[in-house]
Amino acid sequence: MQEANWTQVSEFILLGFSDRLEVQLSFFLLFLLIYLLTVIGNLGMIVLIQTDSLRHSPMYFFLTNLSFIDMCFSSCVTPRFLYDLLMSRKVISYNACATQMWFAATFATTECYLLAAMAYDRFVAICNPLLYPIIMTKNTCVQLVFCCYLVGIVISIVHTASIFNLFFCGPNEITSYFCDIPPLLRLSCSENHVSQTILFVLAAFVVVLNAVIVLISYICILSTILRMRTSTGKRKAFSTCASHLMSVVLYFGTMIFMYAQPGGLEAVEQDKIVSVFYTIVIPMLNPAIYSLRNEEVKKALKKKLNKKICLHQPKF
């Protein structure tokens, strides 16, 4: 069959997880709660940092951007998912699908690079503490974050263009709850070997490369920590790295499983579970990880709460 004879679909149907009403209502309540916690947690983290002296630290400048990206990443997927859970027919237009994919790919890619930049920041802070103020200046941090966003945008354009240059002649049922790359590649009527190769190469370049940068940074950090003479210094160094390392393991682990393995287009059900984890659950967990594991964030939060309590106490 020639591509000229194919009729391009104008919309897609998102199959999601189940068509049973009681299951959909349960999912709606669960993911609505998760989304509200995601927005409140990440927005709260941004406000806390920006209204405290923490905002002057490079680490918390990166953390502010991480919270912003997590909130945006979840917002380009979850609200649409919640809407579809209330609909009997879950239809998304061709253009809306391409737009959702572009936004999701942009924030997912940007987060990979940002986590690597945060690992580099921790490496300089612990391994070269005397040079830290000289290396990690405000301009350097802004430039690093700008590059993260720029690379994220460029790579997402390549991904979206490679997918939506393919022909989709039917069926038009996406075996997911949002317009993700693997389920769309399964629907393509035209030869998609080039798009699969682009997906794998770019995923390896983005995820694996940044994961290696993080790994090397933490090998150096661990080596430096083990050479420290005082247990207090070791505890402080571990506490500043533990939350970031936990976020890295969760995020890169799911991304490598989802995109950076050859032949990763076949496992439909496990793709759904993994994609829920990195698009919806991890953005909710990051604020909790950083607030519970980071002493400076906990101190800033306690200071804000004590200030509010003092303001609301009756004066005699």
Question: Radius of gyration over alpha carbons?
Answer: 22 Å
Number of helices in the DSSP assignment: 11
Identify the strand order in the major beta sheet.
2-1-3
Structural class: mainly alpha
Helix content: over 70%
Q: At the fourth CATH level, what is the homologous superfamily?
A: Rhodopsin 7-helix transmembrane proteins
CATH class identity? Mainly Alpha
Q: Kindly report how far apart the N and C termini lie.
A: 86 Å
Task: Report the mean per-residue pLDDT as an integer.
Answer: 82
Architecture, CATH level 2?
Up-down Bundle
What letter string, H or E per element, gives the SSE order? EHHHEHHHEHHHHH
From the 3D structure, determine the CATH topology: Rhopdopsin 7-helix transmembrane proteins
Number of strands: 3
Number of folding domains?
1
Largest sheet: number of strands, sense, barrel closure: 3 strands, mixed
Overall shape: it is globular
Unreliable stretches, pLDDT < 50, 5 or more residues?
A: none
Protein name: Olfactory receptor
Subcellular location: Cell membrane; Membrane
GO molecular function, one term: olfactory receptor activity
Transmembrane segments: 25-48, 60-82, 102-120, 141-168, 198-225, 237-261, 273-292
